[in-house]
Amino acid sequence: METINTADRQAYRRMTTDEQRVHFLKEGLFETGKLNVIYSDVDRAVVAAAVPTTIELALMGGREMACAYFHERRESGVINLGSEGKVTVDGTVYVLASRECIYIGKGSKNVSFASVCPEKPAQFYLVSYPAHAAYPTTHATAAQANLVEVGSKKDANQRTIRQFIRPGKIQSCQLVMGYTELAEGSVWNTYPPHTHDRRTEVYCYFDLPENGRVIHLYGEPSETRHLVLKEKDVVFSPAWSIHSGVGTGSYRFVWAMGGENQVFEDMDPAKIR
Asked: Taking the C-alpha atoms of 9, 4, 96 and 169 in order, what is their torsion angle to the nearest 10 degrees?
């Protein structure tokens, strides 16, 4: 388990590009045959990626969490970004097709990941936050997500938001999770940019071509910075920071939030001017 410490709202202003990438970004999280885990000081979020092949990969707690097992005091959301795979939670097997989600509740002791076809592995992306209440483990297909259509082709930000873990859908303690897909020809995400001081957010960009990039904007509205991201890069967004971005073409990204409030629409817009 690796630890990432992000910078505060004063320190980020003085950082070089390399320093910014160390404190806000994780590259290379998805490795074939491995389960990589990142512990962050952003609301103590944990991010992980499992790409199982011939061997099932078990999710274990680390010294950083001081727990007997990973979900002793946590809940997690998992979205499969690869081929069909299996998530086993305390002996129950859930088969996840590509773009499907599973919520794993507090108190789940044994969690592992496997691919249905090792030659075409699943790519499980996990985000976890501390939890004070236990809710049942729940599997959802892409069709079962709450769909929100926003933006327009004219403004190059037409996109579909698929909300899996949120009030009215999959119940959780504090985690909210889903993914956004941009229509062909649209490149702007999370527009207009905003903050929400009551919760933090983690982004994982995916479905970018080999030479495709996303310029992720962050920082305070009057003092922005940017990170240039490639396929499956993960970026941590503190509560004080805006989060928006523009790509070289259309793409998708998983978003996950944790904090005081689960209402998805709870945002503090930043005026473009």
From this structure: -30
Distance CA 37, CA 62 (A): 9
Q: Does pLDDT of 87 surpass 80? A: yes
Q: Determine the pLDDT at residue 261.
A: 61
Q: pTM here?
A: 0.94
Sheet holding 188-189, edge to edge: 188-189, 242-247, 214-220, 223-229
- Amino acid identity of 195? T
Q: How many angstroms separate the CA atoms of 57 and 121, rounded? A: 12
- Do 238 and 257 meet the contact criterion of CB atoms below 8 Å apart? no
2-269: what fold?
Jelly Rolls (2.60.120)
SS3 track for the chain: CEEECCCCCCHHHHCCHHHHHHHHEECCCCCCCCEEEEEECCCCCEEEEECCCCCCEECCCCHHHCCCCHHHCEEEEEEECCCCEEEEECCEEEEECCCCEEEECCCCCCEEEEECCCCCCCCEEEEEEECCCCCCCEEECHHHCEEEEECCCCCCCCEEEEEEECCCCECCCCCEEEEEEECCCCCEECCCCEECCCEEEEEEEECCCCCCCEEEEEEECCEEEEEEECCCCEEEECCCCEEEEEECCCCEEEEEEEECCCCCCCCEECCCC
- What residues have CB less than 8 Å from 169, skipping those under 6 apart? 140, 144, 145, 146, 163
Q: Which of 47-51, 80-84, 175-179, 256-260 has the lowest mean pLDDT?
A: 256-260
Q: How far apart are CA 163 and CA 61, in angstroms?
A: 27
Per residue in 33-47, pLDDT tens?
Answer: 999 999 998 888 999
